[in-house]
Amino acid sequence: MLLTTPIRLDVVLKPFLARVFARVARLLGIPEIQHRIDHADSEIRNLRDFSRTDSRFGTLERHLERRTQQQLTDQAAHTQQQLTDQAAHTQQQLTDLRQLLNEAQQAIISTTTLHTEQVVNEVRSHLEAQLNVAKRDLDNLRRMASTQSPTTGATPSKAEAPAVIDDALYISLEDHFRGDKATVHQRQMEYLPYITGIVSDQFPLIDLGCGRGEWLQVLKEHHLAARGIDSNTACVAECTENGLSASLGDLLETLTQLPDASCGSVTMFQVLEHLPFDVVVNVLREARRVLIPGGVFIGEVPNSETLRVGASTFWIDPTHQRPLFPAVLAFLASSVGFTGVTGKYSSPLAPTPDLTGLPDAATKTILDLHHAINGPGDFALIATA
Hints:
single chain; alpha/beta; Rossmann fold; 7-stranded mixed beta sheet
């Protein structure tokens, strides 16, 4: 809180100084000195009275008076010096106190200003994030509106399968649950070593189900020839607006139309789990056909070996068909002719706990349980033609 009312130091410090001077008086023995002075005055009066009856005491009286006066003068001078020194010390304390009060007030002002700026920045960031989400939803709706033909009132034929979720709404769902584009972009950077030196202008990369285009953006930044295919009109429109090569189409049909050994790499990030099982097999078979010798297929799926994924988060997406077990994907890849088949686990759901000091048997049991529940969230099949 800011100090809006001026501080009167005389009012605040008067009781404090009274206590200080009282303590100083006690320390210096001033009350005792006063008592001694009063006692000396009484003795002098008694001697004076007595001297009126005996002249012999006149000289003694004058001697005692001079001696007492000298003692009082010396004591008064000493006390005065002590009081002067104490007054100077007290004045310095007052000066230091004023400076401390000023510094405290400035600190309060600075802290309040800093806190206010921090709150404003947090609110601004929150509002900007909400605005970006709203803008993205609006852009998706506009893309959908531009790609849909005007309604004629005709009812769809029974042979047409209704969409599980419309394109724009699906993009919003993916934005909300999968993570922002920057996070996905950073994760997919880890796959560059698998295709570097294989993809070229002559043998480009085909990204099936390119989605929002994070992987295409990574490839563009590293000057690797690539194009994306997706059935979601909003996704394709967004990729195109961002200067990425993407087109609308069915991924299996796209593969079947490509010549043999025409691609350096085929990639599918979080796509295979959306397909019926027979389509998964055919996609792997066609990908093997269109890849050059040494070409690489990368297929990332949610890791159903991790319990939280297989039993929970996998089912967030209403378009998912079924979890694909990593070992099954590896088996299928080998069955359709891929020679080098391996896998990559990534995106752990929780950090490994520190179990320092526990017995080895307990440590192993807890780590196995942690891995089963909070292990890697994703698995990628890496298969070489």
